[in-house]
Amino acid sequence: MVLGAVLSPTSTNIAGWRHPNAVSNAGVSLKDMTRFAEEAEKAKFDFVFLADELCAPDASPGILSRDPVIYRFEPLTLTAALAAGTERIGLIVTQTTTYNEPYHVARKLASIDNLSEGRAGWNLVTSYVTAEAANFSTAKHASNVDRYARAEEFFEVTRGLWDSWDDDAFVLDKAEGRYFDPAGLHVLDHEGDSFSVRGPLNVVRPVQGRPVQVQAGSSPAGIALAAKYAEVVFTAQTTLENALAFTTELRERTVEAGRPAGDIRVLAGTMPIVGETMAEAQAKADELGALIHPEVGLARLSQLLGFDVSGMPLDSYLPDEIPETEAYKSRQALIVDLARREHLTIGELYPRVVGSYGHRTVIGTPELIADELQAWFEAGAVDGYIIAPAFLPDGLDDFSRLVIPELRRRGLFRDEYEGRTLRDHLRLAWPARGAGWDE
To answer: What are the Luciferase-like domain coordinates in residue numbering (predicted)?
Structure first.
């Protein structure tokens, strides 16, 4: 199975930074972040992942003062630094198509892929956080439909820029004084609805042909985009039934888009809380739950729902009708489904949701957690997991030390890397220049 690890500098669990063992200042410490990446590489994870948002949470200063995601490193800068501190592990970084330009993203990611010798991946997002608009001279956040239309053109331009050069274009012929073969240069000359980009990119073609393409949206528009372009898809499914339905639909849509169903690796976000015994694991989970301050828990739940629950009694339930959000569409649906399915009150719901940002939490011994991961994998619901430690370093250390050996014992995970690039790790094809284009 594929395994990636989230490197969240202030912990994935909203209260994880409060744990006595947490490295709570990791967001301002390259030494710590490099150590976490090296630990994941030592365990032979396929990749580490850096999430991103281009704003502080939209909340009052009082609530913000309790939320550790108020700060984070710019992820491309951090990824470049981590590339220098590691050798084999993949590096997947989030970049939005709503508040960026294709040339910038193409150039930066091509640079990182070349400097890391083929280990870069791009998590394409469309900025589901509406507050980002206020930081980019935009009066209103674009609709879900408009953001995804822009994202599709954005990716097409970026892919075209990565194909600016043949792989052997740079001949460096000192005797003849010719730096590159003119026949190996391809000018994009793109004119579209959102972008006008001439090219060429002034960076050599990426080692991987293009960085591995990752997508995380599970709304209808997100699935459509993933079916056309994605090679890895992150999803936040919390039940086997829903995970199977999601992956089945995605693979069907991928075939409809003219691609083989197996071209995409589907990874479910999972927060494992591991103990040597079940009692120890549950005690860890209870301790984390008790650290979530209700004020920030309700604010984060409101953000994910796109609906304010902060004034509702903790013993009340979600209303029967919740307005559809233009932000976290797929996450809203998953949370509402969880609340209805398990008949959870607001007070019971927010620790379940905000502790893992809506992802599935698995609590237990190494054997039990391996059982859970194996069941979804062997059922065909997922190709692997993106592991979100509750906090660092303990969450990553516990999984690497206790669960990965159990997965290896069952023949479900590698002992050593077999290749050097992220495409090698994920067993993804190397795209020839011009693949997918009509020239």
So the answer is: 18-381
Contacts of 316 (CB under 8 A, 6+ apart): 345, 346
β partners of residue 387? 5, 270
> Would you identify the CATH topology of the domain 2-273+360-426?
TIM Barrel (3.20.20)
Query: Own/partner pairs for 77-83, CB < 8 Å, 24+ apart?
Result: 78/30, 78/33, 78/50, 79/50, 79/112, 79/120, 80/111, 80/112, 80/115, 81/30, 81/33, 81/34, 82/33, 82/34, 82/37, 82/48, 83/112, 83/115, 83/116, 83/119, 83/120
pTM metric for this prediction: 0.90
pLDDT, mean of residues 272-291: 94
Give residue 326's pLDDT band: very low, low, confident or very high (50, 70, 90).
low
Pairing of strands 212-215, 120-125: parallel
300 SS3 class: helix
**Average pLDDT in the chain:** 92
Residues with Cβ within 8 Å of residue 107, at least 6 apart in sequence: 161, 201, 202, 203
SS3 of residue 91 by DSSP: strand
8 A C-beta contact, residue 285 and residue 273: yes
Please report, for the chain, the start and end positions of each structural domain, with discontinuous segments joined by +. 2-273+360-426, 293-354
Q: Which region among 15-29, 129-143, 240-254 has the lowest average model confidence (pLDDT)? A: 15-29
Q: What is the pLDDT of residues 389-399, one digit of tens each?
A: 999 999 999 99
The torsion angle over the Cα atoms of residues 265, 269, 273 and 275, rounded to 10 degrees, is -10
